[in-house]
Design brief:
two-stranded antiparallel sheet, 1% strand, 71% helix, mainly alpha
């Protein structure tokens, strides 16, 4: 059955119809709704749509592709499971970005390596070039289908009419919207036409229709860009044996692009030129490493007295624990990040060198890794001291997580110095994806609330105002804490600050487990 879909002359029409159906589901799930369980539902439907209709473009599956899919599904599930505001916003960028990279890896005719920057180029090319190039394709399909039965003299007239309708559509939407706002009777008349939309205002119905049309065009253009990719003819000298695609189904529906636009359809497996990166001279690299390592060794030798002495009361003269913790923390993290860039540049950008010079550079890089690790440990301990003095926050938690992440990357880079076969970039990508999923699922707000409660039990200080800004994940713990430590004001604030969430009637598309659990706890607890 799938083979019949690939070769049928109506393939493009079937894909377009499914795209509009998926667009209708999209507006139903997300129009006037916040993200919830609806988000992973649509992600799964989108993957089915892509893999069903562009299945003939799929590259051979790999363990990384399965890992990539798992990461994307897990991150999309966070919208239905967790209620952390930071990751709610961040994943709006991360999840679509990962999906774009995954689609480029699995479906792009360029067949990019997932551990090379070229996969980013392939993803951007598809979104910025292939997708816009195919947005008019449904209109060309409609025009050719209608014009196929017309005589030649009628085709130009039909084309002009279609173009006029397209130009009039946005004006029509604006004008009707303005008139509806200006005259209530006119709006009431539109509400009852047609009769099957009596409870919808014309404005809402129009927006939903526009949403479906736009999303339908975008979804179709996105998948069709993989089925029939275009390329600039100016790149033909860089590609190998590029000819127009011969897919019978696609060719039967969508014609080759006009030469006036300098486009042509590319082969699915067309080769692309390798990126040639400039190489660092090994002698120059050794000189740089010697100079910066001398500075780092001097810094580290002085740092050790504070790094291991601060916990025993040996602080710089005139410094308190909070002042010591705060001073230089950001600078240490930035320097460690800079060292990381230098390390990667040396490992992957160094030119060929003799045995002696190569070993010298390896030794210098190892010193760089050790010094970076010491500075990272110092910054880590400074942050711990600062948290003990001022409490735990989301930003401090994320900085801790980032430093741990950077520490593991440094260890892997240190291994790569003497293990040339270690696929460092591959390890970084896999570890980065797993780490990001772990940070999403670890329950950041719950941990922050728990650590602040422990701090309160130790020193008797608590920032209630900040705890009240945490996501609903912390509400059950804070309610229990308010009972155990006789804090009626905290309990009262939890009820008053979340009254809107408790009384609001959310649709099923917005369901979130942590929010649901918090609402149940607040409803079971009688407010003061």
């Amino acid at each position: 059955m799938y083979e019949k879909l690939i070769v049928t002359p109506q393939r493009a029409s079937i894909v377009l119809g499914t795209a509009f159906a998926l667009a209708a589901i999209h507006q139903y799930l997300f129009y006037d709704h916040t993200y919830g369980i609806s988000y992973p539902m649509f992600v799964i439907l989108f993957y089915l749509y892509m893999y069903i209709y562009a299945g003939d473009c799929l590259r051979r599956g790999s363990w990384f592709s399965r890992l990539f899919t798992t990461v994307i599904i897990l991150l999309s599930l966070t919208y239905g499971w967790f209620a952390n505001g930071f990751f709610y916003v961040l994943n709006m960028l991360v999840v679509p970005g990962l999906i774009s990279l995954h689609m480029a890896y699995m479906l792009s005719y360029r067949r990019p390596n997932w551990a090379r920057m070229y996969i980013v180029y392939a993803a951007l090319e598809h979104v910025l070039l292939q997708l816009p190039a195919h947005l008019p394709t449904p209109l060309r399909m409609l025009y050719r289908k209608a014009a196929g039965r017309m005589q030649q003299q009628h085709k130009r007239l039909a084309g002009k009419i279609l173009l006029g309708l397209l130009c009039a559509l946005p004006l029509l939407i604006i004008i009707i919207g303005l008139l509806s706002s200006a005259d209530g009777m006119f709006q009431q008349m539109l509400i009852h036409v047609p009769d099957w939309l009596p409870r919808l205002s014309f404005t809402e119905g129009t927006l939903r229709l526009v949403w479906i049309v736009m999303m339908g065009f975008i979804l179709f253009a996105y998948v069709w860009g993989f089925i029939q990719p275009y390329r600039r003819q100016s790149l033909s000298s860089s590609l190998v044996a590029d000819q127009p695609a011969s897919d019978s189904a696609a060719g039967a529906t969508i014609p080759s692009a006009s030469p006036a636009h300098d486009w042509q359809i590319d082969k699915p497996n067309a080769a692309y030129p390798p990126l040639v990166m400039p190489r660092l001279d090994p002698i120059m690299l050794a000189t740089v490493l010697v100079v910066i390592n001398l500075v780092y060794l001097l810094f580290v030798s002085l740092q050790f007295s504070y790094l291991f002495g601060a916990g025993q009361g040996y602080l710089p003269d005139g410094s308190t624990y909070a002042e010591y913790a705060r001073s230089g923390f950001g600078e240490l993290v930035l320097v460690t990040g800079l060292n990381f860039v230098i390390l990667l540049s040396a490992l992957y950008g160094s030119g060929k060198a003799g045995v002696g010079l190569h070993r010298l550079n390896q030794f210098l890089l190892l010193i760089l890794v050790v010094c970076s690790a010491v500075m990272l440990c110092s910054a880590f301990m400074r942050l711990l001291m600062y948290e003990q003095a001022y409490g735990y926050t989301v930003i401090r938690f994320l900085v801790h997580a980032f430093m741990l992440f950077l520490g593991v990357l440094l260890v892997l880079a240190g291994l790569r110095i003497y293990m040339s076969r270690l696929p460092l970039i591959h390890c970084y990508i896999v570890f980065g994806l797993i780490s990001y999923v772990l940070v999403n699922y670890i329950g950041m707000d719950r941990i922050i609330a728990e650590r602040n409660i422990q701090r309160y039990e130790q020193i008797g200080e608590l920032d209630q105002e900040y705890l009240l800004t945490l996501s609903p994940a912390a509400i059950p713990m804070l309610l229990r804490f308010s009972y155990e430590h006789q804090l009626p004001e905290l309990r009262k604030r939890l009820h008053t600050d979340n009254e809107y969430v408790v009384t609001r009637h959310a649709s099923w598309q917005e369901y979130n487990w942590e929010t649901h659990r918090a609402i149940q706890q607040l409803r079971l607890d009688r407010p003061l």
